[in-house]
């Protein structure tokens, strides 16, 4: 596995963020809230929304840059839910195509699971990959998350219906301390 760090986003990451996030293969596996094409304005908004200069943990979640050899080449976050789902947190992530297949994302998910359980009062962390995203499903399984369900044709993306899958890990299981 290639070494990497998870760290806060910085405005100096903007050029790499726009470059890597602009890949249509990245946007194809994320919700439509992730814009494509990805502009500098999108990048500035993203970095600004996920930068907390006071160092205080944001109650709505945290997003870290994935840095390899000094280059921010991906993102991962965990987001506590509200109301009756308040003991759950959702995880989302992406990694630049140039870095796929190096074990980075599996380890990033493991680290984020540990972080999520230590930073938030949640008992379950879940992720919702598209049914067509086999690589993401493998990442989640290798990181210790288990499949919970499949919702047939629950997603409409780029003019076609896709299944939505749910993977989760509960406090005390697998990669969580």
Explain this structure to me?
The protein is of the alpha+beta class. Helix content is 27%, strand content 31%. It has 5 helices and 7 strands; from the N terminus they run βαααβββαβαββ. The longest helix has 16 residues, at 104-119. A 7-stranded mixed β-sheet has the order 1-2-3-4-5-7-6, sandwiched between helices. It has helices spanning 14-21, 24-27, 40-49, 104-119, 134-142, and strands at residues 5-7, 62-68, 71-80, 88-95, 124-127, 146-157, 160-170. The two termini are 21 Å apart. 29% of the residues are buried. The radius of gyration is 16 Å and the shape is globular.
Low-confidence stretches: none
What is the spatial order of strands in the main beta sheet? 1-2-3-4-5-7-6
Element string (H = helix, E = strand): EHHHEEEHEHEE
Please identify the structural class as seen in this structure: alpha+beta
Number of strands: 7
Sum up the overall morphology in one term: globular
- DSSP helix count? 5
Biggest pleated-sheet summary: 7 strands, mixed
Helix content: 25-40%
The share of residues in extended strands comes to 25-35%
- Alpha-carbon Rg, integer: 16 Å
Q: How many angstroms separate the termini?
A: 21 Å
Mean pLDDT: 93
Descriptive tags:
globular; 7 strands; seven-stranded mixed beta sheet
Summarize the topology:
Elements: E1 5-7, H1 14-21, H2 24-27, H3 40-49, E2 62-68, E3 71-80, E4 88-95, H4 104-119, E5 124-127, H5 134-142, E6 146-157, E7 160-170
Parallel strand pairs: 4-5
Antiparallel strand pairs: 1-2, 2-3, 3-4, 5-7, 6-7
């Amino acid at each position: 596995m290639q070494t990497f760090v998870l760290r806060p986003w910085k405005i100096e990451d903007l050029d790499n963020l726009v470059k890597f996030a602009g890949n249509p293969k990245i946007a194809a596996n994320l919700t439509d809230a992730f814009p494509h094409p990805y502009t500098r304005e999108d990048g500035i908004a993203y970095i600004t929304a996920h930068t907390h200069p006071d160092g205080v943990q944001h109650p709505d979640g945290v997003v870290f840059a994935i840095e390899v050899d000094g280059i921010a080449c991906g993102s991962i976050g965990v987001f506590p839910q509200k109301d009756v789902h308040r003991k759950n947190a959702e995880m989302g992530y992406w990694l630049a195509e140039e870095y796929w297949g190096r074990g980075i994302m599996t380890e990033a998910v493991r680290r984020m699971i540990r972080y999520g359980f230590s930073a938030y009062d949640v008992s379950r962390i879940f992720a919702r990959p598209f049914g067509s995203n086999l690589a993401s499903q493998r990442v989640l399984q290798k990181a210790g998350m288990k499949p919970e369900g499949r919702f047939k044709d629950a997603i409409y993306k780029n003019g076609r219906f896709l299944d939505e899958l749910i993977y989760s890990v509960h406090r005390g299981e697998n990669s969580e301390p």
